[in-house]
Design goal:
3 strands; 10 helices; Four Helix Bundle (Hemerythrin (Met), subunit A); 3-stranded antiparallel beta sheet; single chain; mainly alpha
């Protein structure tokens, strides 16, 4: 296998496994067996090991002595850390973006919000892609590659919580909170736009805290055997 082939194989396993963890196809705490991953992706064990090392570095996977790799479990402390970090990064990105947000950007964000609410209404869940595109429409005009990169990593960790714990959120709440951000960004009021974004993320924290207390089994995952 050439270096290029190995790199491509590692990227394939990394991307597929990462997305399966984010979407819950590989639940929190579940075992990630090398042979199964290799067979599923049609590759040898070498790129699987390298992909798992990359995922471990990002905090999605952990190695357990004598038991192999498994998906990192969810926890209250981790959720709080993830969302508080999101608030810091996303507020800064929004502040930097505000002078560069055009009517066209606002229109795209509005379209993404309409699509995610429609999917929420029909399928019971706001889709990953439209939800991400809505928020990132406000961050990308910052022009900061590092902010976008870091937000992307933390965002995908928060997605694991959102998929499991957002049972209290309705399409109406999602639309209302997103439209408030849109309105305040459109008005050019940085402080009020930041307040709307912060309130949106803090509401998520409160919802997940309630879910943890009432349904801890949703977050503890499964024991790998």
């Amino acid at each position: 296998m050439s270096n290029n082939d190995l790199t491509s194989s590692v990227e394939l396993v990394y991307q597929r496994t990462r997305m399966a963890i984010i979407t819950g196809d590989y639940p929190p705490g579940s075992a990630l067996r090398l042979q199964e991953l290799a067979a599923h992706n049609g590759v040898s064990m070498i790129p699987v090991r390298e992909a798992l090392r990359l995922l471990e570095a990002e905090g999605f996977v952990e190695s357990v002595p004598n038991r192999g790799a498994r998906v990192v479990a969810l926890s209250m402390d981790d959720m709080l850390d993830v969302y508080r970090t999101r608030i810091v990064l996303e507020v800064e990105a929004l502040r930097q973006s505000m002078p560069n947000i055009s009517p066209a950007v606002l229109e795209r964000a509005r379209d993404h919000n309409n699509r995610l609410v429609l999917r929420f209404e029909t399928e019971g869940y706001a889709g990953y892609e439209d939800h991400r595109l809505f928020h990132f429409a406000f961050y990308e005009p910052s022009g900061s590659k590092w902010l976008i990169k870091l937000i992307g990593i933390v965002w995908d960790h928060s997605e694991r919580y959102r998929r499991i714990g957002s049972l209290r959120v309705t399409p109406e709440i999602a639309r209302e909170e997103h439209e408030l951000i849109l309105e305040r960004v459109g008005n050019g009021d940085i402080n009020r736009a930041v307040a709307a974004l912060t309130n949106h993320l803090e509401n998520s924290i409160a919802n997940f805290q309630d879910q943890f207390r009432e349904n801890p089994e949703l977050f503890t995952g499964v024991n790998s055997q």
